[in-house]
């Protein structure tokens, strides 16, 4: 089935119509989820349209058809999040066809825009795999917050995944590609000098940085955001 935006908008659950929505140009019948998508319900914003960006932004107040499905400016992790949403709809609801527009042309073929999205999504997957590998090599820190001292991060032999290891490590900021946020990672002492000098791990584009006002061999660091 190929639908235009005008045709899709009619599938809104009113006057006996089923409830459709589109995500990344794919159309799904979500009628059986009427308690979520029916009139006045929390996800009714998505009904009868492709509002892919809102799955990430969480902004359900205003719908702009010029930007609602323009996903190329989203961060890599957000593109992966959208793909996870699509997998959810494929599993839980009924796939009905394609929406003519940004992702598919009038013959139902992927558009140039769609190919650009797929290329960015592939890059996001590669970057995520590199970061996941990094997190296996450099486990996460313990984290706690107090009003008096702010956020405290520190390493133990079980921090991160909870599995016992032979080394404790030292806390460092770990930035993933295309993301200004960071995770705390525990770095073994044997790699500290190289990481602190280069700022980059031996593989991938993930970046390590020392915490401000925290000595290089400190077992714990404090910071405020």
Automatic annotation (TrEMBL):
SMART domains: Cyt-b5. One of its GO terms (cellular component) is endomembrane system. Pfam families: Cyt-b5. Residues 3-100 form the Cytochrome b5 heme-binding domain. Belongs to the cytochrome b5 family. MAPR subfamily. This is Neuferricin homolog.
